[in-house]
Every structure is written in C-alpha cells, then in structure tokens.
Specification:
By secondary structure, this protein is α/β, with parallel strands linked by helices. It has helices at about 15, 55-65, 75-85, 95-110, 125-130, 150-155, 180-185, 200-205, 215-220, 250-260, 270-280, 280-305, 325-335, 360-370; strands at about 40, 90-95, 115-120, 135-140, 160-165, 195-200, 225-230, 245-250, 310, 315-320, 335-340, 340, 350-355. The protein folds into two domains: about 25-50 and about 280-370, Aspartate Aminotransferase, domain 1 (Alpha-Beta Complex), CATH 3.90.1150; about 55-280, Type I PLP-dependent aspartate aminotransferase-like (Major domain) (Aspartate Aminotransferase, domain 2), CATH 3.40.640.
C-alpha cells in the first residue's frame, strides 16, 4: 500500500512549519455547559447592533438573484465609496473582509527573509501574513496610551523591511494616532517598503474626534507605496457578510491588488448590503453613539473593580486585571459572558472586552464583580 503521508515538497516549508490553526471562539465552543443561545459574546469586536434596515432589505432582494455571479468589478459600491472617501474609484479594491486584503498584501510585498514591522499587541493576522511568506515579524510595543509607537516603528525599519502595518485605532488597545503622526511614519519609509494603514475601526476613531488621514497622506508625496484598509464589519454591523476594501495610494498599488485577487470575491448579497449601509449614515452614527455609551459604562465599571484600562476609542476595551487574565476569562465564561485576552508578550494579564448592548454591559459588570470580588 502506498504511503499516505504528504509529499516532502507539500506543503511548502514555511507552511509546514506553521502551528495548527486556532479559530476565534464562539458560543458553540464554550465548555461552560450553558445553552449557547444564552451566552453573551463580547470577545470578537463585532457590533451587537444589526445593520441598517435598508441594508437588510437590499440583501433580501439580492438573494433572489444569487443564481448569477456578482459584479466582479463592484462598480456600484466602489463608485459610492469614491464619493464617500474622495479616493478615485479606480484606486478602490474590494476584499472578502479586510482579512483577505492583509493576506494579499503579504503575497504582494513579502519574500522569504523579508521583515514586517507592526505594533504589539495588535491584530494577530499580521503575524500570519508574515509567517506564510517566510518573513520575520518585528513587533514594536505600543505606547502607554495604547497607540502605535511611531518613533519605535521607524527605528525598527531596516534594509530588509518590505512591509509596515500601522493599526489605528489599534486593536486590541484602542489607541489612535493623529494625522501628523501617521504622515511622519509614512515619510520616514523608503520606496522599497509598503505601508498599510489598517483602519478597521476608522469610524469609531472619527466619532471620538480623530482625524481622517487619507488626504494628508496623499498630499505628502511619500516615497513608499501605501494603502488604507477599511471594513463594513464593525461600525456598519456587517461582520457576517465579509466586506472590506483597500483605498490605494496610486493606480499601481491598486493594479497590484487587482492582479492577485479572486474574480468574484465579494458576493452579490454582500455588495448590495454594503451599498445600502453606506447610504444610511444616520444608522451608522446611531451604532457609533450607542457603542460610545456602553464603552464608557464598561470603563467606569471595570475601573471601580480595580482594572486598569487603556483609553480606547474602539468598540472594545483592553485592561489589566487584578487576577490572571486566563482565570478572569474562564470564570466569566462559566457565568455566560465570553471575553478575550491579550496574548502578546508582556500583556499576559490583560483582557479585552467587546462593547455590547446595555443588557450585555449589565451582565458583564455583575459577573466581573463576582469574579474579582
């Protein structure tokens, strides 16, 4: 009988060296014994509020035509995004969530032995982006306010750096940078380094009084190629539809993304929903405001319980806890509340809480009082 083990050439070496994948836990993964329908999911930075009713209606109508492929050029959606952002339509590339775009930029920019500079703690997908391409991740600790350390990231750039990813507001700490800081980083990068500004939480930052960096970056005449990644998953309440987009700094950057993407990467239903959601900014503002209220309630409550939170502007809060983070997460889950923890070195005693509804906040704080009491 032939040996059924994989060929020594498959998968390629850098993939074979990766650990087994781990998946973000949902209620169905809970070992608490509680009915999954009764568990409060406050660990994945989703919106607890549904998308615009206009988006729901548009998606329901689009479902009737799913026997046809979607528009592979996303023309209606990118035209609306161009009007909304000021970026030319031809420089907007849609993705199956911004996760897909992070994967793509690694394929575009990285080869084995290259370096990727990122903040830490930050989105885990950056490490995977580096690893699958055989690149080395260079992680620079965030500042005390939870925002990326621009000076530290610039100092970390070497002749091998081919990609810098800047997350602002930063997940999981919630700190954001000013436009001057973002432009300073961009200007400090060589033409051989690609810059990605990950703005998955852009709308929350703007609602908190933050800047829109796009015009300033475009006007800065920077040498490095660049793109900003945004998403409909967070402030638009459409995480389940997987719609992200890249706002590219040049036609050449956009073309590079176009060359490697899947042809029909964003479904017709998702395109219809995103277009309608973008047109209902009043609903988005409502989500942002309700999120702000619950974020402030959570911060006030956990401070009273002895936690030390970062000053977040996102739909999440990271905080140092008086007890080990793993213990806090497990004991909260046993009480029907799922939250996350920061796994980055030096942040083992930090938890991350996604904002929820008012009822979610009440349940979280009551359960946390028992855990930390």
């Amino acid at each position: 009988m032939a040996d059924a083990s994989p060929s020594p050439t498959f998968p390629k070496t850098v993939i074979g060296a990766l650990p087994a994948p781990g998946w973000p836990p949902t209620q169905r993964d809970s070992t608490s014994g509680i009915d999954p329908a009764r568990i409060r999911r406050m660990n994945l930075n989703e919106s607890p509020f549904p998308p615009s009713p206009r988006a729901v209606a548009a998606m329901q109508e689009a479902v009737t035509r799913v026997n046809y492929y979607p528009d592979p050029q996303w023309r209606d959606l990118t035209a609306a995004l161009a009007a909304h952002t000021g970026i030319p339509q031809g420089r907007i590339v849609m993705g199956h969530g911004s996760d897909e775009l992070i994967v793509q930029v690694g394929r575009l920019a990285l080869a084995e032995g290259d370096e990727v500079v990122v903040p830490t703690p930050s989105f885990p997908g950056y490490a995977k982006c580096a690893a699958v391409n055989g690149a080395r991740l260079v992680a620079v600790k965030v500042r005390q306010d939870g925002a990326p350390d621009v000076d530290g990231m610039l100092e970390a750039v070497t002749g091998r750096t081919r990609l810098v990813i800047l997350c602002t507001p930063n997940n999981p700490t919630g700190g954001m940078l000013t436009t001057d800081e973002v432009v300073r980083l961009a200007r400090g990068l060589p033409a051989t380094t690609m810059l990605v500004v990950d703005e998955a939480y852009y709308e929350y930052g703007r609602h908190a009084g933050g800047d829109d960096h796009l015009a300033a970056i475009a006007a800065a005449g920077i040498a490095a190629p660049w793109a900003s990644f945004r998403t409909f998953s967070k402030a638009y309440g459409m995480a389940g539809m997987r719609v992200g987009y890249a706002l590219c700094g040049s036609d050449a950057v956009a073309l590079a993304f176009q060359k490697i993407r899947s042809t029909f990467n964003v479904s017709a239903v998702a395109q219809a929903g995103a277009l309608a959601a973008l047109g209902d900014q009043e609903h988005t503002r409502s989500i942002l405001e309700r999120t702000r209220v619950e974020r402030e309630r959570i911060v006030a409550g956990i401070v009273r319980l002895g936690c030390e939170p970062f000053p977040s502007v996102g739909n999440f809060i990271a905080a140092r806890t008086p007890k080990p983070a793993g213990t806090v997460c497990a004991e909260l889950e046993a009480r029907g509340v799922m939250i996350g923890r920061l796994g980055a070195p030096g942040f083992d005693d930090y938890i991350r809480i996604t904002t929820g509804t008012a009822d979610d906040t009440d349940a979280l704080l009551a359960a946390l009082a028992e855990v930390l009491g």
